[in-house]
């Protein structure tokens, strides 16, 4: 029961849709179809970053990004070529508050985030950011994404070093200058202090629950947009979590 409560806490709108579908109301199905179509149109075609990370001899790098509910962001990057692992978790707050129930209060400083491990010889940090801004979330929404509201759903990049900070800030400036989006980007760049993996039931959520209404409405369209807009970077079989989570 606790798991179901946590899942449906995502939004009152999702709860309303669940009731409508349970009652077999055609109107509920119509609303879901319309909202899925609206979500699918949210992807934006944008230019790659003019400034990107230089070639490196390293075989593994990590990036920490926040863009709303981590289920969908994780699901998107699990389908990206060159990515070797994506973990849902929390960043921006203290270790002792890195727990779902506490983070959900919006008072911890944490954002639902993902830690992306990738091979820089196959995909760059800048290209990851291009996917992040284009299909993984809407960077013009302040402290929310879709039906999810609160600072824990904010748009944030957590650079691990000066290079990542430079690439991220330069790209935000580039996109704003080109008016790539109809409104200014609100994404913040906050130095990475730590990343804390989320509870086990949050990992691989999109892959494990594709029939969830929340996933169908909000997240599966993102994966479809990744395939459509980045066909050379898309892979059909997702890379699932391999690191330990609490």
TrEMBL record:
Keywords: Oxidoreductase. It is an enzyme of class 1 (oxidoreductase). The active site is at residue 69. Its EC number is 1.8.4.11. GO terms for molecular function: L-methionine:thioredoxin-disulfide S-oxidoreductase activity; peptide-methionine (S)-S-oxide reductase activity. Gene3D superfamilies: Peptide methionine sulphoxide reductase MsrA. Residues 62-214 form the Peptide methionine sulphoxide reductase MsrA domain. Pfam families: PMSR. InterPro entries: Met_Sox_Rdtase_MsrA_dom (IPR002569), Met_Sox_Rdtase_MsrA_sf (IPR036509). It comes from the Bacteria. It catalyses: [thioredoxin]-disulfide + L-methionine + H2O = L-methionine (S)-S-oxide + [thioredoxin]-dithiol; L-methionyl-[protein] + [thioredoxin]-disulfide + H2O = L-methionyl-(S)-S-oxide-[protein] + [thioredoxin]-dithiol. Belongs to the MsrA Met sulfoxide reductase family. HAMAP family: MsrA (MF_01401). Has an important function as a repair enzyme for proteins that have been inactivated by oxidation. Catalyzes the reversible oxidation-reduction of methionine sulfoxide in proteins to methionine. NCBIfam families: msrA. This is Peptide methionine sulfoxide reductase MsrA. It comes from Paraburkholderia sartisoli.
